[in-house]
Write a structure and sequence with these properties.
Largest sheet: 7 strands, mixed
Helix content: 25-40%
CATH architecture: 2-Layer Sandwich
CATH superfamily: Bira Bifunctional Protein, Domain 2
Length: about 170
């Protein structure tokens, strides 16, 4: 069961998730409407977090789904595949592509990004998805590209993404 913590404004869902880590007893998602200091793998970049887009960090005990210290390097690939499959399912479009190491693109424009940080056995999986607006000229959103509106608080969307992440781990680790 996924515990969801919704905040209106945080500096970063990833940073907030780190403060919760010592107290987590179940998988948890921190989502925020607005991030004032969102971050990605390139810390020198400014990350724009428009209200209505998905800004979330999943705290998952990855040891429970088959990861150990020797195969943890596969986690990023599994998360990218899970996110890609979720976005393909939502948009019904197979042209959503992974751009390693951590971006999802559609028509050469960024649609989503991932930041994974670990403190084994936990992983904090930060995911940003442009649902309703594209913060940069080099990006697009699901609404703009596919005329689909999804709320960043829609529980079916959140559970679909979470379950896809867990299923992708399990299916690809076998």
């Amino acid at each position: 069961m996924l515990k969801v913590i919704h905040k209106y404004v945080v500096s970063s869902t990833q940073d907030y998730a780190w403060t919760l880590l010592p107290f987590c007893t179940s998988d948890t998602l921190v989502i925020a409407d607005i991030q004032t200091a969102g971050r990605g793998s390139h810390r020198e970049r400014v990350w724009v977090s428009n209200e209505g887009n998905f800004h979330g960090s999943f705290i998952i005990n990855v040891s429970k789904i088959g990861y150990n210290s020797s195969n943890l390097s596969f986690l990023n690939t599994q998360i990218m595949l899970a996110l890609q499959k979720t976005l393909i399912e939502i948009t019904k479009n197979n042209n959503i592509k992974i751009k390693l190491p951590n971006d999802i693109y559609y028509n050469k424009k960024k649609l989503a990004g991932v930041l994974i940080e670990t403190s084994y056995p936990f992983a904090i999986i930060g995911i940003g998805i442009n649902l309703i607006s594209a913060p940069l000229k080099t990006s697009t959103s699901i609404k703009d590209a596919f005329c689909i509106e999804i709320s960043n608080k829609e529980i079916d969307f959140i559970n679909n993404l979470y379950n896809r992440i867990l299923l992708t781990y399990e299916n690809n680790l076998k």
